[in-house]
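ARCHIVE CARD
Drawer: 12
Card no.: 0347
Subject: one protein chain, sequence and derived structure
Cross-reference: see card 0346
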Amino acid sequence: MKKRNYAVIAAMALALLCGCGNREQASTDGTAAGTTAADSAVGTEEAGTPAKDTEQVTEETSASASTEGAPAAVLSDGTYMAKFETDSNMFHVNETMNGRGILTVSGGKMTIHIVLPSKNTVNLFVGLAEDAKKDGAELLQPTVETVTYSDGMTEEVNAFDLPVPVLEQEYDVALIGTKGKWYDHKVKVTDPEPYEGSREDAGEIRDGEYTIEASVEGGTGKAAISSPAKLSIAGGRMTLQVEWSSPHYDYMIVDGEKYLPVNKEGNSVFLIPVKDVEKDMTVIADTTAMSKPHEIEYVLHLKPGTLK
């Protein structure tokens, strides 16, 4: 009887011992699994790339999706003078336009008025030539304008109002000429500046008195000139009145020629020649404000879109 009881007790003890061992093993396995998952989550952080939680990844993905493909900002409504660039010297604006066109912005939509060298371009199309040939393609129709060249000769040419989907970036424009063949081109509209003149005033500058915004860079950066400055045109030659912010300039040098002040009192004023209002000019001005006279080089900037 006693032997049976001992056997039962021993069996029960063994069962309890095995059960504890299984529970301990299960606990150990669970901890190992948890550690493995944690190690996986932080593994990239130890490698130098911080792990991101789900909310952070979702937020960043949403932010990326919201900015990707967003339309580029456009100018405020108004009229501007802008450069019109193409990929071919066979397609460009008339020489009287100085490489520019009149950009109009209305309701966020942009259109540039370009005057061409002749009537040889019959239609334009925003897109590729293969699409321009399709039925229902919206072809741009020309208007006829008269341009006046520097030698006084006049000519009738075609002009177009071309949509501008984006600034500072190339886009596709196809054209068809009088021979009936379509050509693909890349165009780009850049450097818009506010403009208050008319289309007729946008091309070759005619004889007369004008004003134009002007500025200088160079020296100590303290010198300035009056703006807008007076611009006189006579016989196709342009003369700019430069009034300095100091009375201590005694001469200027432009293209190797020396020019003296045209006044004796007040700030120094000079009349200097200008070849091209589209291009910056390097000039030299001699100042007597220091212990000894010094010639200082400046860069003169003119803004053609502000010509009035």
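Annotation on reverse: The two ends are 127 Å apart (CA to CA). Residues 2-46 form the longest helix (45 residues).
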